Amino acid sequence: MKSWILAATITAFFASGCATTTSPTGRTQIVGGVSQQELNQLGAQAFAETKAKEPASKDAKQNAYVNCVVNALVQQLPPDWRSIGWETQVFVDPEPNAFALPGGKVGVYTGIFTVAKNQDQLAAVLGHEIGHVIARHHEERITRQLGTQQLLGLGAAVAGAKYGQTGSDLVGQLGGLTAQGLFLLPGSRTQETEADVVGQRLMADAGFDPRQAVDLWQNMLAASSSRPPEWLSTHPDPQARISELKRSSPGLVPTYEAARKAGHVPKCG
User: Fold this and answer.
1) pTM of the model
2) Model confidence at 154: pLDDT above 50
3) Which of 11, 60, 61, 244 has the highest Cβ tally under 10 A?
4) Ranges for the Peptidase M48 domain (predicted)?
5) Strands 98-101 and 105-109: what pairing?
C-alpha cells in the first residue's frame, strides 16, 4: 500500500475517536474504538450468554471461596475500577479456565480447581483475568481490529481498482493472514504477558503469595496436552512465562508481606 494511503487511513482512524494511553506497565496503547458503556454492554451480554449455556455451581462453599478471592483482589483496585459492581459466577465445567469481562463480570469454571490448588493459586488466575480488564485489553483489541479492518479494506479497494476482483480478493486473503500473524496475535501475547505482571502485583497487594503464580502456571502446563506453535498462539511460551513470573516473584515478596502486616490476610479456603 502506498505510504500516503496508509498515513491517511491511520489519520482517519485516530480522527474517528481513537487515542493513545498508557497501560499499567507503561506500554503505549491505542484505544477509543469503542466507548466504556459499549464495552460494559458487550461484557454483560457475553456474561449473560455464558450463564445461559453453562450450568451454575450450586456448591455454597465453592461459591463463597471464589467470591472471597475476587473480593480480596477487587478491594486493591483503584477506586474507579473498584466501584463498578463486580459480579462473580462459578460454572460447572471441567475446563481449567476463568475469565473477566468489562463491566466487572468474572466467570470461573470448576475445572480450574484441578490446577489452582489453593487460594493463592486461584488468586493468580483471577488476578491475571482482572488484569486484562483494568489494563483495558478488551478495548485495545477491539480498537486494533477495527483499525486493521479499515487498512485491509482500503488495500483491497486499491488492488481492485488496479487488478480487478482477483487482486482485491488476494489482498484481502493475504492481508488478513499477515495481520493475524504479525499484528493481532503478537498483540494478544503482549496482553497476556502484561496481564501476568498486573495480576501478580495485584495478588501481592491483596495479601496473596505472588510466588504461587509460578506453581499455578506449572500446574497449568502439566495439565496441557498440546498447544500450537508460539507464533500462532495468543499466549506466550509457557516456559518463558513461568521463568518471567519466577524472576519477578522475589521483588513482590516485600509488597505481599507489607500487605499482610497491614491486615490484608485473605482467609478464603
Assistant:
1) 0.77
2) no
3) 244
4) 61-247
5) antiparallel
Are the CB atoms for 237 and 183 separated by under 8 Å? no
259: left (phi over 0), alpha (psi -120 to 50) or beta: alpha
Chain CA centroid to CA 260, Å: 27
The dihedral sign for the CA sequence 58, 61, 63, 66: negative
- How far apart CA 106 and CA 48 sit, in angstroms, is 11
What is the greatest pairwise CA distance in the chain?
70
Average of per-residue pLDDT across 141-160: 54
Q: Looking at per-residue confidence, does 179 or 248 come out higher?
A: 248
Q: What are the residue boundaries of the structural domains of the chain, listed by start?
A: 33-261
Label residue 137 exposed, middle or buried (CB < 10 Å: 0-12, 13-18, 19+): buried
The C-alpha cell 483482589 sits at 73
Considering only CA atoms, which of 44, 65, 80, 188 is closest in space to residue 126?
65
Residue type present at position 31: V
- What is the pLDDT at residue 252? 98
Q: Which residue has the cell 513461568?
A: 242
Q: Is 237 within 8 Å of 221 (Cβ atoms)?
A: no
Residues annotated as part of the active site: 129
